[in-house]
Amino acid sequence: MEWLFKVALVSLRLSPLVVGAPVFGNIPVPAAARIVLLVALATGLAGSLTVAPQNVETLPWMALHELLVGATLAAGLYTGFAALHFGGRLLDLQIGFGIASLVDFANSTNMPLIGTLLSMAGVLFFFAIDGHHVLFHVLQLSLTRIPPGGALDGIDAGAVVAQFGSAFSFGFMIVAPVVICLLLVDLGMAFMSRTMPQMNVFILSLAVKVLVGLVVLALSIPFAGAVMQRVFDAVFEGWARVVS
Which of 78, 96, 90 has the alpha carbon at shortest distance from 231? Predict the structure, then answer.
């Protein structure tokens, strides 16, 4: 019973990451496979834990504590992908792709076109830099620093709030070259509309902005790796502050 109790608590802590995190939650995997993966990870992590016996009255609070710790770690990962999503959404609005959207068949939702592409690139980059290894290390460290069923004051929620605040700045940094070029295009089109009012500048600007936006985006992709590295470094540092 003690072993089952430990596995249940660790499973509750892992569930927000396995079920809802952008890296793992958006993959169309059957629910049974998710449960098997969740229990297998919890079994491996709960082997060396020692949990003091608790009363039946304290079990709901312990379950709530584990869900909050897992949700805090998952929120830190959300901030990294929120930066990519924000940058892609910003480009969609400037280029003109905001009038259309890409259907996400995994979640049956409408997603921005460039935001979806940047999020997919972020998933590949996360695994390329061994971010999943860091995630498992943080989970193991959290079980040591914040024992299952501990007090709720062991969570540093301010670190998560600070991460969400930096998502906007990182999102703009990723697409800054494209945004600046599109701003110059808008200024040029505004000047043309004043000097040549007979020209349909609106229709012309749509084609020009799509062409310029995609070309500059393709040229800036090789330099976006350093910014993505900073994005996930901020995620890892936020995790370190949460479990410290």
Answer: 78
C-alpha span between 91 and 113 (Å, rounded): 9
- For the four alpha carbons of 19, 158, 68 and 3, in that order, the dihedral sign comes to positive
Inside any domain, residue 39: no
Domain range enclosing 189? 60-243
| Overall number of domains in the chain | 1
CA 172 to mean position of chain CA atoms: 15
Which tens digits make up the pLDDT trace of 43-74?
777 776 666 556 666 777 777 878 888 888 88
Buried b (16+ CB within 10 A) or exposed e, 151-171: eeeebbeebbeebeebbeebb
User: Using one digit for the tens of pLDDT, what is the confidence trace for 211-243?
Assistant: 888 888 888 888 888 888 888 888 888 777 777
What does residue 52 show for φ and ψ, rounded to 5 degrees?
-70, 145
